[in-house]
Amino acid sequence: MTALRAPALAALGLLAFLLFWEAMPRLGLINPAFLPPPSTIPAAFLNEIRLGVWGEAVWSSLSHYLVGLVTGAGAGIALGVLVGMFRGFEALTAWIVRLLRPIPGLAWVPFAIIWFGVQPSAAVFIIAIGVFWIVFFATQGAVRGVDRDLVEVAQAFGFRSPLSRLTKILLPAATPGILVGLRTALGQAWMAVVAAEIFGVPGVGARMMQASSLLSTDIVVVYMLTMAGLYGLFDTGFVALQGWLLRWRA
């Protein structure tokens, strides 16, 4: 019974939230045009599928999401490893990082349009920037946090070259920290998708902006829930992969 208590309470809380949401527009406390009741969402979802809009928008956003995630995460891991391994490289890039890190992803939208035009590559660029910093700092911290005793033992056993230290000691030891950064990046990438598509690149973000301009808030909610569902699937899959990669720690 105890094992079922937490899921039951979670389901009860969700049900209470949905009932509260349904009641607010039904009782006239909120204009339904501004916040539609959840009972109208399934019909809007089915209509988007029937028109073929939902599948097209999701496919476009998924392509931007995956390419931007891989690009940003790959660059973040590569640079994070270099900075974590070599103090000189960290000093060389310190002020570049301090200068660029505070700039939000949306601030890069004008340059994305100028450099790439209103094209999928512009969306990929914005998403990659949003992902890069999370993975970079996670990787740098994980590599820098590896026990120095492990490195000294590896050198005593002949692993003296940077490549051998990286592959035999640093990466295996830093993998848990890197994976934490990657998991955070999965969610950040979805947030960046909307920002990357609001200027006209086809996808979920563009469809949400189009619907909001027509006060079709039920459609906006459909795509909000779509992103939440897709993130849940990616996160679940990533947790399974994380457990498999770190099975040696069990």
UniProtKB/TrEMBL annotation:
Membrane-crossing segments per the record: 62-83, 95-116, 122-143, 188-208, 220-245
Subcellular localization, as worded in the UniProt entry: Cell membrane
InterPro entries noted in UniProt: MetI-like, MetI-like_sf
CDD domains cross-referenced by the UniProt entry: TM_PBP2
Highest taxon of source: Bacteria
Predominant subcellular localization, coarse grouping: membrane
SUPFAM superfamilies for the chain: MetI-like
Entries under PROSITE patterns matching the protein: ABC_TM1
Chain ranges of the ABC transmembrane type-1 domain: 58-242
Keyword set, alphabetical order: Cell membrane, Membrane, Transmembrane, Transmembrane helix, Transport
Membrane topology: Multi-pass membrane protein
Family (UniProt): Belongs to the binding-protein-dependent transport system permease family.
Protein name in the entry: ABC transporter permease
